[in-house]
C-alpha cells in the first residue's frame, strides 16, 4: 500500500471499478 494517511479503504465493485471509501 501507499503511505498515504488520507487514504482510508479501497474496494472493487461488481463492475470492476476501484472505489475509495
Main features:
single chain, 21 residues, mainly beta, two-stranded antiparallel sheet, 0% helix
The biggest beta sheet is recorded as: 2 strands, antiparallel
Order of helices and strands: EE
* Adjacency order of strands in the biggest sheet: 1-2
The tally of helices reads 0
Structural class: mainly beta
**Mean of all residue-level pLDDT scores:** 75
Structural features, described:
- There is one protein chain.
- The chain has 21 residues and is an all-beta fold.
- It is elongated and about 25 Å long.
- The protein is 0% helix and 29% strand.
- It has a two-stranded antiparallel sheet with strand order 1-2.
- The mean pLDDT is 75.
Q: Concise description?
A:
This protein has strands at residues 10-12, 18-20. Strands 1-2 form a two-stranded antiparallel ribbon. The chain is built from no helices and two strands.
Give the SSE map.
Layout: E1 10-12, E2 18-20
Antiparallel strand pairs: 1-2
Region (Disordered): 1-21
Amino acid at each position: 500500500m501507499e503511505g498515504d494517511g488520507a487514504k482510508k479503504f479501497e474496494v472493487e465493485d461488481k463492475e470492476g471499478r476501484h472505489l475509495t471509501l
